[in-house]
Amino acid sequence: MGMLAAAAASALLASPQALAGRRRVSGAWTLRLRPATSPGAGTLRLHKFVPKCYIANIEVDVSTVSKEEEFDDQPSLPPGCSIPVVNLLGDVLDSSPFSLHDRASCPSDFEELPVLSEGEQQTLASTPAHPAGLYALYASYLFGNLVEQLWNFAWPAALAILHPSLLPVAIVGFFTKLSVFIGAPIVGKLMDHFPRIPMYTALNAVQVSTQLISAATVIYALKNLSHASTTAVVLRPWFIALVAAGAIERLAGLALGVAMERDWVVLLAGTNRPVALAQANAVLNRLDLICETVGASVFGLLLSKYHPVTCLKIACGLMICSFPVLVMLGQLINRVSCHALDSSRTTTDESICIDLLDLRKLVQNSLSAIKHGWNEYKQQTVLPASAATVFLNFNVALAPGAIMTALLMHRGISPSIVGAFSGLCSIMGLVATFISSSLVKRVGILKAGAAGLIFQASLLSVALTVYWAGSISQRTPLLIFLVSIALSRLGHMSYDVVGTQIVQTGVPASKANLIGGMEVSIASLAELVMLAMAIVANDVSHFGFLAILSVSSVAGAAWMFCRWLTNPTDEQRELFMFDPLYQVQAM
């Protein structure tokens, strides 16, 4: 090893020029070698060497730097770091030939290259790249999501207390979905051109501000609005402000979710560590389910003991306190992960950012962003996996929600059974987050995704068959119907975790937010379409039609995904070369 280093140094110093090494991968610092100015003229010093880091693919350029060039402006090493020194003796400077083909002169270290065993590879795949950063990410996700879910339950509950009609809630919900459909692509594009931490801070500021504005409008209405017609409510200035603030708040919240679930977690877990990434995705899904349950329960408990205005003021206090905590956690994530979030995705172009933020071109920029996002989205290798996720959003009938609750209550089912059904679905979703990560470890992400979709489609087909048999009013068929739907949530949530990881693996970091925003936008469009169908077919007798559409969408997602697996392209094989499915086919 010493002979090779000496020969390399000899070859380099044979030129009258100094050395300048540069990284092939883009970064903010360079690695340089220079002749020492001390009396020991045969000394090379290594500058800007950071402990616990390594550099790959080093290129040495000896043609552009003169010997007299000074490098004294390079920052010094941190205290406590030692400087590696290579002493070049006089006999080394004799540039004698060094034959790499002569086995007798080659060091024995080069006769065999170390290869990780299967167990070591599995251990590496299960170990996150930045475990401390992941824990900080979980804390930030938990706290931010808890406040968000509490508010998502608070505003519809307050509106329901304010006015008995469902129209105000439906109007706010419709415009939030519309804002996501229109705004998600442009926000995703903007996020791909902004540094991560400043964008994270700005989005949190926007979300908290709009939550406070929304809460203020509802508090004003609760204090000043007496019995009024539905038309009088929806045309009031406070309600218009609530709709606008609610739309912006939902867009900012989804943008934060896309950033953390599609971009940050990939950097912290590691794209080439599939088991670690699957486990991180599963933890995020568990936290989301926990926050959804706890947020609703906490605000419901507050409503049972205090006046709605008091409850909303408590929620406002939590929102105000959440902002500095979330900003601090964002900085902590970056710090404990060796500033991994500072890595550049794309060159920050100020002209692009200014143009996207120009309110005078809002409609033009939105349409352009949707067009650009769609063109990028449909060119992705993992398009079928993402499209399958969108297809699952068409299932609004055979899933826990408002339509299923209305059906069961119309059939005279006991509220305790309805509540138990919702609780069982939540438990199945939580269990699925544990199953998915172990399934990925056993069979790989591709087979795990196919298994989740096929499992869900099969159980929903059973539920549809039982419903069309017309006997869910009886106890046994009703239990089969409800249990089939609840168990199908295992497949649904498993694919939700696995499908997310497939898209994370296949989409480059420079387009993660754009593609993620586009997927959310199309999913919102799917929900809008099904919402419109539910409005048209608003009679409970039409539930069978909605159920057929739901099963068809899930079955279509399973067919599309399996066809994608069985007809892989070369790019797809290269992308998932380490997945057991394609490794077996290659053998």
TrEMBL record:
Secretion signal, residue range per the UniProt entry: 1-20
Superkingdom of origin: Eukaryota
Subcellular location, principal: membrane
Q: Which UniProt keywords apply?
A: Ion transport, Membrane, Signal, Transmembrane, Transmembrane helix, Transport
> Example GO molecular function term?
iron ion transmembrane transporter activity
Gene Ontology CC terms, in alphabetical order: membrane
Q: Where are the transmembrane segments?
A: 166-187, 199-222, 238-259, 311-333, 390-409, 416-436, 448-469, 476-495, 515-536, 543-566
Cross-referenced SUPFAM superfamilies: MFS general substrate transporter
InterPro entries, alphabetically?
A: Ferroportin-1 (IPR009716), MFS_trans_sf (IPR036259)
**Would the keyword Ion transport turn up in this protein's UniProt record?**
yes
Family membership noted in the UniProt record: Belongs to the ferroportin (FP) (TC 2.A.100) family. SLC40A subfamily.
- Give a short account of what the protein does: May be involved in iron transport and iron homeostasis.
Q: What is this protein called?
A: Solute carrier family 40 member
The UniProt record lists the keyword Amino-acid biosynthesis: no
